[in-house]
């Protein structure tokens, strides 16, 4: 029963798309085709091969619209399933590709990054949504692997910045003075989900994280 309803809906959608793009549906074409047969001049009938060619072309067009409609239905179903999966992650602590951090206006925020090797010094630069630097901090030696910096939400003047989404970069050097690669991550507790262009995105406060960027959820 469900398959029948789905098939009927897909067919209706395909017919509607054809009506919008071509000004007629396959039913309209068949009616015209039959009327053409009924009203043709008996002394000068149309070439059957030409008529069959027209019918075949219309059938191909209809099949193309049906295929496109079915693909759109599958995509919608997949996005719905992804949305349900994303919603099940709410409340979990996520690590994702990115360099965003959400500041709620009062609580300290944790900035996570991975160092390819041991560092002697690292400079962390935090910027607002307009790209303006609000905080520059220097940290001492850190080991290779994952590291964190706790930001108290203040700028270089010691004033607490407004709540919102910020970004950060990390520049590290080794004891020999060579650069150490630092990979930043977006981390935090997932508190919501939003659909962006039909794709589910998770939210961490003011920060939006694409489902495809998630590396780990605990």
Can you tag this structure with a few keywords?
218 residues; alpha+beta; Immunoglobulin-like; five-stranded antiparallel beta sheet; 3 helices; disordered N terminus
How would you explain this protein's 3D organization?
The structure is a single chain. With 218 residues, the chain is α+β, with helices and mostly antiparallel strands. It folds into 2 domains: 86 residues; 125 residues, Immunoglobulin-like, CATH 2.60.40.4070. Helix content is 34%, strand content 35%. It has a 5-stranded antiparallel β-sheet with strand order 6-3-9-1-13, with no helix packed on it. A hairpin with a 2-residue loop joins strand 11 and strand 12. Helix 1 crosses helix 3 and helix 2 runs antiparallel to helix 3. The protein is elongated and about 100 Å long.
Helix tally equals 3
Q: Tally of extended strands? A: 13
**Sheet bearing the most strands, described?**
5 strands, antiparallel
Strand order of the largest sheet: 6-3-9-1-13
Question: What structural class do you assign from the helix and strand content?
Answer: alpha+beta
Pattern of helices and strands: HHHEEEEEEEEEEEEE
CATH architecture of the largest domain, please?
Answer: Sandwich
Radius of gyration: 30 Å
Gross morphology is elongated
| CATH topology title of the largest domain | Immunoglobulin-like
How many discrete structural domains?
A: 2
């Amino acid at each position: 029963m469900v398959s029948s309803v789905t098939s009927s809906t897909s067919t209706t959608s395909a017919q509607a798309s054809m009506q919008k793009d071509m000004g007629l549906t396959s039913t309209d074409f068949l009616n015209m085709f039959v009327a053409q047969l009924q009203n043709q001049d008996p002394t000068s009938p149309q070439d059957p091969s030409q008529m069959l060619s027209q019918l075949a072309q219309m059938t191909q067009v209809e099949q193309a619209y049906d295929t496109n409609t079915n693909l759109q239905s599958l995509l919608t179903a997949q996005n719905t399933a992804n949305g349900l999966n994303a919603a099940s992650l709410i409340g979990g602590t996520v690590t994702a590709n990115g360099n965003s951090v959400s500041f709620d206006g009062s609580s300290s925020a944790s900035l996570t990054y991975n160092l390819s090797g041991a560092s002697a010094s690292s400079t962390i630069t935090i910027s607002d949504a307009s790209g303006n630097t609000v905080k520059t901090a220097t940290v001492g030696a850190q080991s290779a692997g994952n590291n964190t910096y706790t930001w108290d939400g203040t700028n270089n003047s010691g004033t607490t910045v407004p709540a919102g989404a910020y970004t950060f970069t990390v520049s590290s050097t080794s004891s020999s003075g060579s650069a150490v690669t630092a990979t930043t991550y977006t981390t935090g507790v997932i508190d919501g989900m939003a659909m962006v262009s039909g794709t589910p995105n998770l939210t961490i406060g003011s920060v939006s994280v694409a489902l495809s960027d998630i590396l780990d959820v605990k």
